[in-house]
Specification:
This protein has 482 residues and is an alpha/beta fold. The protein has 2 domains: 186 residues, Aspartate Aminotransferase, domain 1, CATH 3.90.1150.10; 250 residues, Aspartate Aminotransferase, domain 2 (3-Layer(aba) Sandwich). The chain has 18 helices and 14 strands. A 5-stranded mixed sheet has the order 2-8-7-6-5, with helices on both faces. Strands 9-12-11 form a 3-stranded antiparallel sheet. Strands 1-10 form a two-stranded parallel sheet. The model has no long low-confidence stretch (mean pLDDT 97). It binds pyridoxal-5'-phosphate. The site of pyridoxal-5'-phosphate has 15 residues, from helix 4 and helix 5.
Length: 482
């Protein structure tokens, strides 16, 4: 955002775009929401989009595209092999990241699949700052092991540390020295660390881990899905980056890495994914699997139109207006809620606002999924959908025990350029009301629990009749309001 001063009104985040295409929204009556919530098994992923008023489930594949992206899609060069659109994307991605080779894959987890199948041997570790659900599932699927080295402040929901995604470098060094390089497949760093509240990684930490990897001759892999938000924070919170261009910050980060992969559903606002390699041997291993899993190399399981949109979207991440829109809205909503005492993850990160459910619902134990419970309460009172990021998002261990997450969060994603400030105010208002009535909210239990990534398809029910009591109180306070 450029420096634009307000003289009479309070300063609010100012959009540097205008909206010309709109989608109609409906807020179902409360009685309908009760029904839909029950049918979905209190699971946001099982709600139909038409039953949701404000969809804060994710930023993945639902960011607003620009007019440049949409028009480029019309001019896509459709071909099974050799599409010009593909070569355009390859060129832009390799230029921005300073890499030599590019492999397309249909989304972020498809990259993780290829990465793990080509680089991880059974019994090998993948150390990382913090896992993402699909990243860890792919490492485990090929017999690998995940170890996390995030700085201890990363799990402190309310912290002053500007880069909570940073690595505890001493701990990581000790681990590498103990295990030795043969036991380590690669080191993974996740920009904009998703599961701890979209928290960024400093250039300093990217670099320190890079130096360690070079010392021990380890491959260094960046998950750049949330890099756009991360760069905003590098630019605004890290002294070294203050006077650097966005382009130079990206290159200072990407120069550290051997492999960079991304979900283009996030970083380019399109729908796809891809990986860049510095080393030809590793690139060829992944390239040769593309026809098996993704389709031919020059479309990688994606529509060529999306490939055009990805190319433009990647260029657009070089604009400060573009990369700041998400974080400034998130900061504003976090401010509104924090002012009313709602416990939030702070400092605000990227991707969305994160409510600290351990503090919001201290009476709901982790194995009754406070984040999931708060989510169902929010859907009931506001028609808003979000995502639990806590114990519910973990799977049970091999013996069937709950794996208790280090944080219990409810994430409300703010897809880029999608919501208006009045929608942010509405969502905040209902959350404030829930906070005042938090004693009415109870826990959830599974009635149908898948073994892998259970949060996607699992069904739950409330423990006791707390949802009835909450609805009654809503009617009392809100009258006939939707
Ligand atoms: C950090 C990170 N990595 C990987 C992925 C997986 O990407 P996709 O949803 O495109 O498969 C995501 C998706 O949310 C993510 O946030």
């Amino acid at each position: 955002m450029p420096e634009i001063k307000f003289i009479k009104s309070p300063e609010v985040p100012l959009e540097m775009h205008k909206v010309r295409v709109v989608q109609k929204l409906t807020l179902l009556p409360l009685e309908e929401r009760i029904k839909k919530n029950e049918e979905s098994g209190n699971n946001a992923h099982l709600l139909k989009n038409e039953d949701v008023f404000i969809d804060m489930l994710t930023d993945s594949g639902v960011n607003a595209m620009s007019d440049r992206q949409l028009s480029a899609m019309m001019a896509a060069d459709d071909a099974y092999a050799g599409s010009a659109s593909y070569y355009k994307l390859e060129k832009i991605v390799c230029e921005i990241f300073g890499m030599k080779f590019f492999v397309p894959a249909h989304q972020g987890r498809a990259c993780e699949h290829l990465l793990c199948e080509t680089l991880v041997k059974p019994g090998q570790y993948v150390p990382m700052n913090h896992h993402f659900t699909t990243a860890r599932a792919h490492v485990l699927k090929v017999g690998g092991l995940v170890e996390e080295f995030i700085h201890k402040e990363g799990f402190n929901a309310q912290s002053n540390r500007p880069f909570k995604g940073d690595v505890d470098i001493k701990k990581l060094r000790k681990f590498i020295e103990k295990e030795g390089r043969e036991k380590i497949a690669f080191v993974r760093m996740e920009a904009g660390t998703n599961l701890i509240g979209g928290q960024p990684v400093s250039l300093e930490s990217f670099r320190a881990v890079g130096e360690l990897c070079r010392e021990f001759k380890l491959k260094y892999v960046l998950d750049a899905s949330l890099l756009a938000d991360n760069i905003y924070f590098n630019k605004t919170r890290e002294a070294e980056c203050k006077d650097m261009s966005i382009k130079d910050i990206i290159r200072a980060i990407s120069d550290q890495f051997d492999i960079i992969y991304f979900s283009a559903r996030k970083i380019t606002c399109a729908r796809g994914g891809g990986m860049c390699y510095r080393n030809k041997k590793d690139y060829l291993k992944a390239r040769d699997l593309i026809p098996l899993y993704e389709g031919f190399l020059t479309y990688g399981g994606m529509s060529i139109r999306e490939i055009e949109a990805m190319a433009i979207g990647m260029e657009e991440t070089l604009s400060f207006d573009m990369i700041s829109q998400g974080p400034i809205f998130i900061a504003e909503m976090t401010r509104l809620l924090t002012e009313q005492g709602v416990p939030m993850v702070t400092p605000p990160g990227g991707l969305g606002v994160h409510i600290d459910c351990t503090k919001f619902l201290p009476h709901v134990p982790a194995n009754q999924y406070p984040g999931g419970a708060l989510h169902s309460a929010l859907y009931l009172v506001a028609g808003i959908r979000g995502t639990e990021r806590g114990t519910l998002s973990e799977d049970r261990d091999e013996d069937g025990n709950e794996v208790i997450a280090k944080m219990e969060l409810l994430r409300l994603a703010l897809p880029r350029r999608v919501f208006t400030l009045s929608q942010v105010h509405f969502a905040s208002d209902r959350i404030m009301w829930l906070y005042e009535n938090r004693d009415l909210i109870g826990g959830l239990e599974f009635v149908d629990e898948p073994k892998i990534l259970r949060f996607f398809f699992g069904k739950l029910k409330p423990i006791g009749d707390w949802q009835d009591k909450l609805v009654k109180k809503f009617r009392k306070d809100f009258g006939d309001s939707l």
